[in-house]
Design a protein that fits this description.
The chain has one domain (about 5-330): Rossmann fold (3-Layer(aba) Sandwich), CATH 3.40.50. Helix 1 links the parallel strand 1 (about 5) and strand 2. It has helices spanning about 15-25, 80-85, 85-105, 145-155, 185-195, 215-225, 245-260, 285-290, 300-310, 325-340, 355-365; strands spanning about 5, 25-30, 50, 70, 110-115, 130-135, 165-170, 175, 200, 210-215, 235-240, 245, 265-270, 280. A seven-stranded parallel beta sheet has the order 3-2-1-4-5-7-11, sandwiched between helices. It is globular. With about 375 residues, it is α/β, with parallel strands linked by helices.
Length: about 375
């Protein structure tokens, strides 16, 4: 049985990818900090090997028994990258290159690097440059997240030789349900707003273009990279997209699906100018090279999301766990608070004057209180 190491395997994409790998018969090892806790990965933790560690501490011991590495670790959107540019560079660029270098040195055959289509971003108001971009197009990203991913791609792909096959997948904006749910992705955010407020907010008239793909299709593409002829991926870049959509079209299609489910949803359209991403990309290369075709439609994903959100009880929509930047800010604040004394609630070795306070509390019988 082939063993695969997934860096970031307990994240939004990872929780879907791991299930796909296990269903295909792979032995799976996960390297993850578990920023979002164990609960999202609880369905498969008894079937994988979990290493709770920072990817910046990557060493050969992690991959000596692995035939492939999938790196989807690091910071995963613009707000988190801009919140801590240093960590963004360390994780998305420097550590990602290190993972590839060590994997090659350890004899790993394949490495899949999760990159991003936001590398192609030209912004709104660039109609003269509004082209369908492919893997050979010139790119000049400005945002920290896209820049960090692009900076890693070159050195990683340059490691390709007859015994090592790295590949970069530039993913479009992902949508769909995951046990490690995110409501800070455009389609997911529309569904969240519809369910929580009965309306969806569309900024700048929804004029922006975005390539999209369902999270299950992303997982399928990663597995395909492990099973295809290795020469087809060696040193290559592939865009992962199910098509290009204006944000306004996405809102209307989500609204239509929800109406068929009996949910009335209004649109709140804002036409004021904002600094927003806009780009369109081609998915022809991966179609013609690997035969990859997305299988999950936007409509199917939205209906599935509504059902799964209800089934998992992910309806506390304001919970910061569902929003990468909000959760990272909360964790950073918690660390700063705890650093002052080295603990949060339980004080180490606390005793009262008699020296028995801790024991008394532990031995006290539980009581039931009624609020009137």
């Amino acid at each position: 049985m082939k063993k695969v190491l997934v860096v970031g395997g307990a994240g939004y994409v990872g929780c879907v990818l791991i299930e796909e790998l296990l269903a295909k018969g792979y032995s799976v090892k996960i390297l993850d900090r578990l920023f979002f806790g164990r609960e999202p990965a609880s369905r498969f933790l008894d079937r994988v090997e979990l290493i709770v560690e920072d990817m910046r501490e990557f060493d050969e011991s992690l991959v000596q028994d692995c035939s492939a590495v999938i790196n989807i670790g690091g910071l995963s959107n613009d707000p988190t990258a801009e919140f801590n540019p240093k960590a963004n560079e360390e994780l998305n660029t420097l550590a990602s290159i290190r993972v590839a270098e060590i994997s090659k040195r350890a004899g790993v055959e394949r490495l899949v690097f999760g990159s991003t289509c936001s590398i192609y971003d030209r912004g709104v108001g660039e109609d003269v440059n509004d082209l369908l971009l492919d893997e050979a197009s010139d790119v000049a990203p400005k945002a920290a997240y896209a820049t960090s991913k692009l900076a890693a791609e070159g050195p990683i792909l340059a490691l390709a030789d007859e015994s090592f096959a790295p590949v970069a997948f530039r993913k479009g904006t992902i949508f769909g349900f995951s046990p490690r749910m995110r409501y800070d992705l455009v389609v997911n955010a529309f569904v969240k707003d519809a369910l929580s407020k009965g309306k969806m907010s569309v900024h700048y008239g929804g004029a922006m273009w975005r390539p999209l793909i369902d999270v299950k299709d992303v997982a399928r593409a990663y597995v395909m990279a492990l099973e295809c002829d290795v020469d087809l991926i060696r040193g290559e870049i592939f865009n992962l997209t199910a098509g290009n959509f204006r944000i306004s079209e996405l809102a209307l299609r989500v609204q239509h699906v929800l109406s068929q489910l009996g949910l009335k949803v209004d649109l709140d359209v804002d036409y004021s100018y904002r600094m927003l991403r806009s780009y369109r990309v081609s998915g022809n290369k991966i179609l013609h090279t690997l035969g990859f075709q997305p299988l999950v439609s936007l409509e199917e994903a939205v209906e599935d999301m509504v059902q799964e959100i209800d089934r998992w009880g992910y309806t506390d929509f304001s919970n910061p766990r569902y929003y990468n930047i909000e959760w990272m800010k909360l964790l950073e604040e918690a660390v700063e608070i705890a650093r002052t004394h080295g603990y949060v609630l339980t004080k180490p070795d606390f005793k009262d004057a008699s020296g028995l306070a801790t024991e008394r509390v532990r031995e006290a019988p539980s009581e039931t209180f009624t609020t009137r």
